Amino acid sequence: MSATLVGMRSPLSDRAPEGALRQQRGLWSYLREHLPVLLVGTVFLLATNAMEKAIPWLLKLAVDAFSSGNLATVQETALWVGLFALLVLVTRTCSRVFIFNVGRDIEFTLRGEVLAQLHRLGASFFGKSSAGDIMSRATNDLGQVRLLLGFGSMNLVNAIVAYASALA
Predict the structure, then answer these.
(1) pLDDT, tens digit, for every residue of 112-122?
(2) How many domains does the chain have?
(3) Which domain CATH number covers 76?
């Protein structure tokens, strides 16, 4: 993190020389640490989309079987649709748990870094900045980062896969 909170202008701490401050990290460096978990979540997301696209195909088979009078095939297909629906529930939940938790983990890490940075700042910083502004940035902004990395990344991948598979 830099010497100040994002967007706030203030003097550097009297206690920490400029070279001693940690280098600022981009969000990609935090995501890279959680890449295996993101990949597992993406696999579950791909499985969810595949099964969601299989259900209409199975319903088409059931309607064709019903129109030809083959009720045994209709019953079997209905069981497969129910099974796929349950599997979609499980895989969707797993994908959200894995992907959303990455956002929460990164938010937790960033909160710790922001707190450590606040502890390094001098008294002059706190004299010039309002407590409400500091608390707002420490809570709301980091919450938005969590939503971007969790919900946003999941929806980005899901939209790409859903549109590509819908075309097929």
Answers:
(1) 988 888 888 87
(2) 1
(3) 1.20.1560.10
